[in-house]
Amino acid sequence: MLKLDDANQNQLFHENNSSDDTDNYYRDDLLPLMKAGNWDAVKSSVAFKLSDKETLFSEDTWVIPNIMDIDSKLHFLLAGKRVESNITNQIKAFSLACILTGGEELSGESIRGAVSPLMKVAKALIEDGYNSFEAIDDEYALGLPESNPELFETKVVMSALNRMIDYYEELPFQINFSKLDARKLGVVLKDTQQNLVIPPRFFTQMINVFSADIQPLIKYQVQLEKEIERMIKLEHQLFVYRLRQFRKGVIPAITTFKSGFAKLEKHFIEKGITLVDNLRSEESNPEEWMQTFMEIKPSVRISSAYFIYSKQWQHKEFTVGDQSLKTIGQFKTFLTELDMKCKVLCLLLSGMRVDELNAMHPKYGAQSYTYNNQEIHIFTTRQSKIKQGVQTKEDIFATTKTGHIAFNLMSVIHRPFLKRAEDGSSYFVSLKQTIYPKVICKSTWSNTFRKAVNRWLLKHNDIKLSAEDASFLHITNPKNKNIKEGNLFKFTNHQTRRSFAFYLIGYELMAFPQLKQQLSHLSSAMTRHYANNATYWGSLRMEVDNERTSQKSEILARVYNRIVNNERIAGGKGKALKTLAGNNNYFEDGDNSRLLEASYWQKMIRTGKSHIHAIAPGMYCTNSNCDMRINIILEECIDCEFDVILEGMYAEGKRVNASKNLASLDEMGELTHSVASQLVMQIKSCEIILKELNIPFSPMVIPEHINNLLIKTMNI
């Protein structure tokens, strides 16, 4: 069944297309005429009604109202020309079945995505001498790819035909084929196009505008939560009042309920309870009426008009910081848009996936700690990953202070609803449903989220790709032939991750080993796929390259200046250099003194004679062939001939984390030999680094029973 983006528009659409005498206009009025072959009557009938017009079945183009889609039309033409009448009528019947029947909610875009490929299948059928989809059986379907290979380069035709099977009971013709897939048809699908990078003008606008919008609100978190609580209580009070008025017979069912009344009435009859009871049952059995009502949970009309025009329900404006919102509707719109902005920032400023954001605990998901006066912000996406005998990789995403604020603000928005919602596995709720609060799954909120971002972009931008946009996207996806100036840009959820990788590599803000760790990729090939073509992008290439070389040369010069000043340094190469220098006289020699100058190292880096890259904060590797794994193995770094360690911040963080994991596993009785050895080695390695850098710490004492678990090794 069609679902429109706007809830009010959606409700109005389905009210306009209901029939007074029948349950379903299409199923009860049009379908019998179709099955009887009375197509003349069908063609002169209304297909569906909008608030301002009626769409006739005979029209070649049906317009579906959709705020998101500028081009929201179903075209029953092929290359601008009509196709044979009978087969076109079948496609129209299928379209109406999708629009007005079925339990699955479909967008106008989804329905349009099935109509276009079916028109192409219709052309193939006509060329083979058929004028009905009934001609397609399994044998005919197997032969279609051979005669029409272009139809099966992607899975859209198979998906459209399979959707027909889903609606077989609502169609005026027989379906004679079973579900299709690429293996059954013996076709090899073309590689799917890589997700587009978000063009710079949209990317920077969202980062800058959304950051500016949420920053002032962080100090008003308590006020925001109180206002949400007040809104929920107001709507609940009106809900109770409306039900009491209905039970007294003051207001009729039609003005009390949006939907579900027929089911409610039937349920009360089956239970033997009077529905309009004038509150009499409250004396004999106070809980019975409401308990029976809540078993159905029909939608009750809580009109904003009550809050605006009735003195009894007037309330003060909702205030958050400097912003004031007069009505509950305005406040809910404010909340949903603020929630969208927070989610966008969480994704854009971390590179995490939507499902990882969905799994973040509202209380523990965003964490921060201070080390050496530097504040570190991280997202932890899985808090329950330790299993007996298995120590999986950590899903930790570094983020910025803005990302941290965005997550905390988003948690504040959802918290009042969550504590009232029914049990569920999600941490996200419907922000519009205050009477029956419910958690929503990832597929539900992520789809709404995508539409909300597109709606915002459409409102604040010309979303047609400019020549500059198209040129940029051609660089990011040179194999994509569908990128053209004037096309509409549409945001999809996974673009945030692709854009994160592309911009960080393109601007040289992160190296591939670091990006691989940030994205939690097991394979560097996957990381390079995400950052595909980033190294070829932009007129800033030379400027960025010079800045990169300058920063690397300063790091190398700092290493040698630290040695000459007799400051602490760790890592295999760091210690070797210190031993080689012996004393300060080493750098008084003319050739050796240049090692202290960044200009010397710039020349060495540009000629490829020297190399350095960061593997963690304050930790560097000078091996050009290094591709550090997701989890840096510190025990391999402390004596590595290529590593230089200048700071202990990362080591201390890993040591604390390993200590916590060791204690947790031990407490749960799930500590194995291999995991214990791994964690203890990590702790000891971190302590060696801290000791070599002369950073004070309290060594961790390993309990004897854990020492007994360790796997004993010896060097040969």
Alpha-beta content class:
mainly alpha
Which sequence of strands runs across the widest sheet?
A: 9-10-11
The largest sheet is: 3 strands, antiparallel
**Record field, number of beta strands:** 14
Helix content range? 40-55%
Question: How large is the share of residues in beta strands?
Answer: 5-15%
Mean of the pLDDT scores? 84
Q: Into how many domains do the coordinates divide?
A: 5
How far apart lie the N and C ends? 71 Å
What's the tally of helices? 31
The coarse silhouette is globular
Rg over CA atoms, rounded to whole Å, is: 32 Å
- Poorly predicted tracts of residues: 67-71, 383-393
Layout of helices and strands, plus pairs?
Layout lengths: L6 H10 L8 H11 L3 H5 L2 E4 L4 E3 L4 E3 L9 E3 L9 H16 L7 H20 L10 H10 L8 H11 L15 H4 L14 H15 L6 H27 L5 H4 E3 L1 H11 L9 H4 L3 H7 L4 E2 L3 H6 L8 E3 L2 E3 L2 H21 L5 H5 L7 E6 L2 E7 L15 E4 L1 H18 L23 H19 L6 H10 L18 H12 L5 H7 L5 H7 L10 H24 L7 H10 L8 H4 L4 H9 L6 E4 L2 E3 L12 H4 L5 E3 L3 H20 L4 H20 L11 H4 L9
Antiparallel strand pairs: 1-2, 3-4, 5-6, 7-8, 9-10, 10-11, 12-13, 13-14
Helix pairs in contact: 2-4, 4-5, 5-7, 9-16, 10-18, 16-18, 22-23, 24-25, 24-27, 29-30
